């Protein structure tokens, strides 16, 4: 940052304040409107799969295994009793 602008932290504080207040968004919007009025902007958009990708699960891929987030929390002392663990009745 050139010294003539002052300390960098003051510049950053001003930048963040303008960002929070929406000043940068208004500047961009105004500049776009002026350029569009002069015919300087072509509003063509092209998106293809080389730059826009979905996660494999968003595309329908099958998940394998159980996610740790979805596993029930079971402590070792609260283990389920199976038929082979149950005491035999006489």
Describe this structure in words.
32% of the residues lie in helices and 0% in strands. The chain has 90 residues and is an all-alpha fold. It has a domain at 1-43. The longest helix is centred in the middle third of the chain and has 15 residues, at 23-37. The chain starts with 7 loop residues before the first helix and ends in a 53-residue tail after the last helix. It is flat and about 60 Å long.
SSE diagram, text form:
Layout (H helix, E strand, L loop, with lengths): L7 H14 L1 H15 L53
Q: Top keywords for this entry?
A:
2 helices, 0% strand, mainly alpha, single chain
Taking Cα atoms only, what radius of gyration do you get, to the nearest Å?
A: 30 Å
Helical content (DSSP H or I, runs of 4+): 25-40%
Largest sheet: none
- Mean pLDDT over the full residue set: 77
Number of helices: 2
Unreliable stretches, pLDDT < 50, 5 or more residues? none
Compressed to H and E, one letter per element, the order equals: HH
Cα distance spanning the termini: 88 Å
Shape estimate:
flat
Q: Please give the number of β-strands.
A: 0
Strand content: under 5%
